[in-house]
Amino acid sequence: MEKKVYVNTLEDMEKLAKAVAGTVIPGYVIGLAGDLGAGKTTFTKYLAKYLGIIGNVNSPTFTILKIYEGKIPLYHVDVYRLEDIGYDFELDDFLFGNGLTVIEWYPYIERMLPDNLLTIDIQIGDDGIREITIKGNGSYEKAVETISNRYGN
User: Fold this and answer.
1) What is the distance between the terminal CA atoms of the chain, rounded to a whole angstrom?
2) Looking at the 3D structure of the chain, how many domains does it have?
3) How does pLDDT run across 100-139, given as a tens digit for each residue?
4) CA angle in degrees (0–180, nearest 5) for 121-91-69
5) CA angle, 28 then 103 then 76, to 5°
6) Alpha helices (runs of H) in the chain, residue ranges in sequence order
7) How far apart, in whole angstroms, are the C-alpha atoms of residue 42 and residue 139?
8) CATH number of 96's domain
9) Residues in contact with 93: Cβ distance below 8 Å, sequence separation at least 6, in sequence order
10) What pLDDT digit, counting tens, does each position of 1-59 carry?
11) What is the pTM (predicted TM-score) of this model?
12) Structural domain of 6
């Protein structure tokens, strides 16, 4: 299932993250895609807030992985630097772990991702409004409808 929503402000991005957080269970995997500056890390910061994570959440671009403790662990992965070597990088403990795995630039490692996956693709329009495509594969199909309804856009 696939839905499009539109994000006009940071408040809208936070509202979307809150809607997604309401569907999260241990083992959940979210792939984020979008150009530099599209809002992938901003979305993750807001998501972390609704998982009860306190502290600074920032992009793991240079470290590849950051782990945050909250209601469930958040594994924040940025695979931008793995474009050519991503399939040699061991992520199984996080992709099939007991937390929430959020992967920025997920298309770079798409072949190694589980069938059950929620993807959020962010495109910035000329007017600055973000068109966000939320797609659920496998058991996440139902979550897309729930997220869309909670976001209400």
Assistant:
1) 17
2) 1
3) 999 999 998 888 888 889 999 999 999 999 999 999 988 8
4) 80
5) 85
6) 10-21, 40-50, 92-95, 141-151
7) 26
8) 3.40.50.300
9) none
10) 999 999 999 999 999 999 999 999 999 999 999 999 999 999 999 999 999 999 889 87
11) 0.90
12) 2-151
